Amino acid sequence: MSSGAEAIAPRLAALRERIARAAQRAGRRADEIALVGVSKRKPAALVAAAVRAGLRHVGENYVQESISKIPKILEELSGLELEPPRWHFIGQLQRNKAKPVAAHFDLVETVDRAALGAELDRRAAEAGRSLEVLLQVNLSGEPQKGGVDPEALPALLAASRAWSQLRAIGLMTVPAAASDPEASRPAFARLRALRDALRDAEGGQALRELSMGMSADFEVAIEEGATIIRVGTALFGARAP
């Protein structure tokens, strides 16, 4: 199957079937799981084709790419009776890029330190916007990956209570790369356990979301409780090197 726009609708339908089967195995409903199409390095026309096919959530990793691409996607969709997608920022974020992210995105999945949350909060207030955020947890211990250490997660949740324009609604993780999807299951189960434990803490009652699972392992993630999965290759095709 080609990687062009004509391939998007069949791929999206196939993904929805796989999501439904995984949810059924776990005794869950498919509509409990949000599919985020990860569109980094993909052209606006291709992303717009996915939205026309029914994709409701779009995830971007890179600030400069996304702030130039989002208006192009919206232009592609203009004139259609479609609500714009919900924009997720899913890349590592530095404080000096908080302003454009606060202006363009609805959900930031990668808040991993109090200083970043405070800066996003300030920039969202300047833009007159409210944002939802996920607290990213580094469960693999890999230094190149973003995320707060699990032991420091309660302190980050406590800090989030001071953010007036941000609302922490869940947790996110990126497990260690593995060829076997089952290898990610312990990390997914641990994230769910962390979320469940924090829901009894002050400020933790809103932590309903678990963003975990990508193209190679999202079915395992769904079986372990994922409410958000981030899928790029399986929807948009392989990225160019």
| Poorly predicted runs of 5 or more residues | none
Distinct helical segment count: 9
Task: Let me know the number of strands.
Answer: 8
User: How many domain regions?
Assistant: 1
Give the termini separation: 19 Å
- Helix share of residues? 25-40%
CATH homologous superfamily - what is it? Alanine racemase
Task: Give the tags.
241 residues, alpha/beta, TIM Barrel, eight-stranded parallel β-sheet, 39% helix, 16% strand, globular
Tell me about this structure.
There is one protein chain. This protein is of the alpha/beta class and 241 residues long. The protein is built from nine helices and eight strands. α2 crosses α3 and α4 (98-104) packs across α5 (114-127). The longest helix is centred in the first third of the chain and has 18 residues, at 8-25. The two termini are 19 Å apart. The mean pLDDT is 95.
Short characterization:
By secondary structure, the chain is an alpha/beta fold. The protein has helices spanning 8-25, 44-52, 63-77, 98-104, 114-127, 153-160, 185-198, 218-223, 233-236, and strands at residues 34-38, 57-60, 86-89, 107-111, 131-136, 166-172, 209-211, 228-231.
Which helices and strands appear, and what pairs or packs with what?
Layout: H1 8-25, E1 34-38, H2 44-52, E2 57-60, H3 63-77, E3 86-89, H4 98-104, E4 107-111, H5 114-127, E5 131-136, H6 153-160, E6 166-172, H7 185-198, E7 209-211, H8 218-223, E8 228-231, H9 233-236
Parallel strand pairs: 1-2, 1-8, 2-3, 3-4, 4-5, 5-6, 6-7
